[in-house]
Amino acid sequence: MGQLIKHLTNILGLNSSRRYPYPACDITLADDRYLHLVGSIHMGTENMFPLSEILMEQLNQADTLIVEADITQASLPFHDKLQLYSRIEQRLSSEMYQDFQHCCHEIRQQEEWLNLLPSWQIALILQAEQAQNLGLYPHYGIDYQLLNAAKAQGKAIIELESADSQVKLLNQIPNNGLPLLEDTLVHWHANARALQTMISWWMDYQPKQQKHALPTTFSKEIYQLLMTERNKQWNQRLRELPAGRYLIAVGALHLYGEGNLPQMLMEEQR
């Protein structure tokens, strides 16, 4: 996959000479459409607040803020159907169940009530608790702060996805999302390193000095569903925008690697 910053540097070099103190690139599409594409982190640390003056300047200049979903409106609607699931130890291999127990112990999560949930929801809960254990909280997330600032200014806001569509996407994962739970357990420590790396980008972003590749946290199948396919859908949505200036905040993982969003957008210019 290569180094993240190498990908970002290549992307930036195609379309913008300006460098930002956070992961971002500028893309100009036909018909006077100007995009400032930001690699957001959905949960942040206290020292990520307030947003940098440079990012606020970009928001001030934008006509519209575009985000994955408006997370200030409501929490993700979890599975609400009355359905019985097998116990977690029956869903996982013996070795992976031990990993699950270790993860729960690390984040001080009670296992029993998780048995009532589909596997994809358990995975999201574990990931969120892991992030919080590292000192990250949703109200310090970049997109959360941008949404509040945009609403205070009366800016137009566009969601690339609704919360319901995100749940439908998660329900496409086989066995009630078991592969996502397995991915979460297999890449548990790698995900923690990835979160710490993304925090460092927002604290002291220096593309030329970045030497470490971001750890792999998805299997090929999950990456295809949650990253590549969504990038394709977002690319189509963004190509349909009318003339204007847009600030677009999506998860930083969408900015690099195979099938990344900036490269898809730039194909229009070739």
Which terms summarize this structure?
270 residues, alpha/beta, 5-stranded mixed β-sheet
Structure description:
The structure is a single chain. This protein has one domain. The protein is 47% helix and 11% strand. It has eleven helices and five strands; from the N terminus they run αββαβααααβααααβα. Strands 1-2-5-3-4 form a five-stranded mixed sheet. β1 (24-29) and β2 (33-40) form a beta hairpin. α4 (94-107) crosses α5 and α5 packs parallel to α8. The longest helix is centred in the C-terminal third of the chain and has 20 residues, at 220-239. The protein starts with a helix and ends with a helix. Residues 1-15 have low confidence and may be disordered.
Query: Beta fraction of the residues?
Result: 5-15%
Low-confidence stretches: 1-15
Mean pLDDT: 88
Largest sheet: 5 strands, mixed
Estimated structural class: alpha/beta
Approximate helicity band: 40-55%
**How do the SSEs run, as a string of H and E?**
HEEHEHHHHEHHHHEH
Query: Terminal Cα separation, in Å?
Result: 23 Å
**Overall spatial form:** globular
What is the domain total for the residues?
Answer: 1
Q: How many strands?
A: 5
Largest beta sheet: strand ordering: 1-2-5-3-4
Total helices: the number is 11
Rg on CA atoms, Å: 19 Å
